[in-house]
Amino acid sequence: MSKKSPYGECGKLILSHRNLVGEIPEGIGRIHNLQVLDLSHNHLTGSVPRSLERMINAQRIDLSHNNWLTGSIPPEISVNNGPRAKCEYLDLSHNQLDQDPAPLPEAKHWDQLQGHVWLGHQQPAS
Q1: CB–CB of 62/42 below 8 Å?
Q2: Which residues contact 93 (CB under 8 A, 6 or more apart)?
Q3: What is the CATH number of the domain that holds 50?
Q4: Arithmetic mean of pLDDT, 110-117
Q5: Which of 3, 74, 78, 126 is placed for a possible disulfide with 111 were both Cys, Cβ 3.0 to 4.6 Å?
Q6: What distance in Å separates the CA atoms of residue 26 and residue 50, rounded to the nearest whole number?
Q7: DSSP codes of every residue in 89-121
Q8: Structural domain contains residue 18
Q9: Can you give the C-alpha Rg of the chain in angstroms?
Q10: What predicted TM-score, i.e. pTM, was given to this entire model?
Q11: How confident is the model over 25-82, as pLDDT tens digits?
Protein backbone atom coordinates (compact mmCIF):
# COMPACT_ATOMS: atom_id res chain seq x y z
CA MET A 1 0.00 0.00 0.00
CA SER A 2 1.53 3.30 -1.06
CA LYS A 3 1.51 6.23 1.29
CA LYS A 4 -0.67 9.06 0.01
CA SER A 5 0.49 12.63 0.13
CA PRO A 6 -1.43 14.79 2.62
CA TYR A 7 -1.59 17.37 -0.18
CA GLY A 8 -3.85 15.22 -2.33
CA GLU A 9 -3.90 15.53 -6.08
CA CYS A 10 -2.82 19.17 -6.32
CA GLY A 11 -1.83 19.84 -9.95
CA LYS A 12 -1.03 23.55 -9.75
CA LEU A 13 0.21 25.72 -6.92
CA ILE A 14 0.18 29.33 -8.10
CA LEU A 15 0.93 31.81 -5.34
CA SER A 16 2.61 34.58 -7.32
CA HIS A 17 2.19 38.23 -6.31
CA ARG A 18 0.90 37.31 -2.82
CA ASN A 19 3.50 39.16 -0.69
CA LEU A 20 4.61 35.85 0.82
CA VAL A 21 7.58 36.11 3.20
CA GLY A 22 9.91 33.53 4.70
CA GLU A 23 11.56 30.40 3.38
CA ILE A 24 10.17 27.90 0.91
CA PRO A 25 9.41 24.84 3.07
CA GLU A 26 11.48 21.72 2.37
CA GLY A 27 8.20 19.78 2.41
CA ILE A 28 7.18 21.38 -0.90
CA GLY A 29 8.74 18.36 -2.61
CA ARG A 30 6.08 16.09 -1.11
CA ILE A 31 3.52 17.36 -3.60
CA HIS A 32 4.45 14.68 -6.13
CA ASN A 33 1.61 15.35 -8.60
CA LEU A 34 2.35 19.05 -8.91
CA GLN A 35 2.79 20.14 -12.52
CA VAL A 36 3.06 23.90 -11.98
CA LEU A 37 4.77 25.62 -9.05
CA ASP A 38 4.70 29.41 -9.25
CA LEU A 39 5.97 31.30 -6.21
CA SER A 40 7.25 34.25 -8.23
CA HIS A 41 7.05 37.93 -7.30
CA ASN A 42 7.03 37.45 -3.52
CA HIS A 43 9.54 38.13 -0.73
CA LEU A 44 10.86 34.61 -0.19
CA THR A 45 14.23 34.10 1.49
CA GLY A 46 16.67 31.28 2.11
CA SER A 47 17.81 28.63 -0.31
CA VAL A 48 16.05 26.75 -3.08
CA PRO A 49 14.85 23.48 -1.47
CA ARG A 50 16.57 20.31 -2.65
CA SER A 51 13.23 18.54 -2.28
CA LEU A 52 12.11 20.05 -5.59
CA GLU A 53 13.83 17.07 -7.22
CA ARG A 54 11.02 14.85 -5.87
CA MET A 55 8.42 16.79 -7.86
CA ILE A 56 8.91 14.51 -10.86
CA ASN A 57 5.76 15.66 -12.66
CA ALA A 58 6.58 19.37 -12.52
CA GLN A 59 6.56 20.94 -15.96
CA ARG A 60 6.92 24.55 -14.86
CA ILE A 61 8.78 25.95 -11.83
CA ASP A 62 8.90 29.72 -11.35
CA LEU A 63 10.69 31.12 -8.30
CA SER A 64 11.69 34.38 -10.00
CA HIS A 65 11.48 37.90 -8.62
CA ASN A 66 11.84 37.06 -4.95
CA ASN A 67 15.14 38.99 -4.71
CA TRP A 68 16.26 37.22 -1.54
CA LEU A 69 16.57 33.56 -2.50
CA THR A 70 20.25 32.90 -1.84
CA GLY A 71 22.91 30.24 -1.98
CA SER A 72 23.70 27.78 -4.71
CA ILE A 73 21.18 26.14 -6.97
CA PRO A 74 20.79 22.44 -6.15
CA PRO A 75 21.95 20.36 -9.12
CA GLU A 76 19.00 18.06 -8.46
CA ILE A 77 16.64 20.57 -10.07
CA SER A 78 18.39 20.73 -13.43
CA VAL A 79 15.71 20.58 -16.12
CA ASN A 80 17.69 18.60 -18.65
CA ASN A 81 18.42 15.26 -17.05
CA GLY A 82 17.28 12.84 -14.42
CA PRO A 83 13.96 13.39 -12.68
CA ARG A 84 13.65 16.95 -13.99
CA ALA A 85 13.61 15.86 -17.65
CA LYS A 86 9.86 16.67 -17.89
CA CYS A 87 10.38 20.24 -16.73
CA GLU A 88 9.97 22.63 -19.66
CA TYR A 89 10.37 25.91 -17.79
CA LEU A 90 12.54 26.85 -14.83
CA ASP A 91 12.85 30.53 -13.91
CA LEU A 92 15.09 31.50 -10.99
CA SER A 93 15.88 35.02 -12.21
CA HIS A 94 15.90 38.16 -10.08
CA ASN A 95 17.25 36.45 -6.97
CA GLN A 96 20.63 36.39 -5.22
CA LEU A 97 21.68 32.89 -6.31
CA ASP A 98 25.38 32.06 -6.55
CA GLN A 99 25.65 29.99 -9.71
CA ASP A 100 24.00 28.44 -12.70
CA PRO A 101 22.26 25.12 -12.09
CA ALA A 102 24.43 22.18 -12.98
CA PRO A 103 24.68 20.19 -15.03
CA LEU A 104 23.29 22.05 -18.00
CA PRO A 105 23.63 20.45 -21.40
CA GLU A 106 26.27 21.73 -23.76
CA ALA A 107 24.34 24.02 -26.08
CA LYS A 108 25.43 27.13 -27.91
CA HIS A 109 21.93 28.56 -28.21
CA TRP A 110 19.13 28.75 -25.64
CA ASP A 111 16.62 27.33 -28.12
CA GLN A 112 18.61 24.08 -28.16
CA LEU A 113 17.78 23.46 -24.52
CA GLN A 114 14.96 21.06 -23.71
CA GLY A 115 13.89 23.52 -21.00
CA HIS A 116 14.59 27.18 -20.51
CA VAL A 117 16.62 28.22 -17.48
CA TRP A 118 16.70 31.94 -16.84
CA LEU A 119 18.88 33.36 -14.12
CA GLY A 120 19.62 36.87 -15.28
CA HIS A 121 17.52 39.99 -15.48
CA GLN A 122 16.14 39.26 -18.93
CA GLN A 123 15.14 36.25 -20.94
CA PRO A 124 17.73 34.94 -23.39
CA ALA A 125 17.27 35.73 -27.07
CA SER A 126 16.21 32.77 -29.18
Answers
A1: no
A2: 64, 65, 118, 119, 120, 121
A3: 3.80.10.10
A4: 42
A5: 126
A6: 7
A7: EEE--SSEE-S--SPPP--SSGGGSSSEEE-SS
A8: yes
A9: 14
A10: 0.75
A11: 999 988 888 999 999 999 999 999 989 888 888 888 899 899 889 888 777 675 555 5
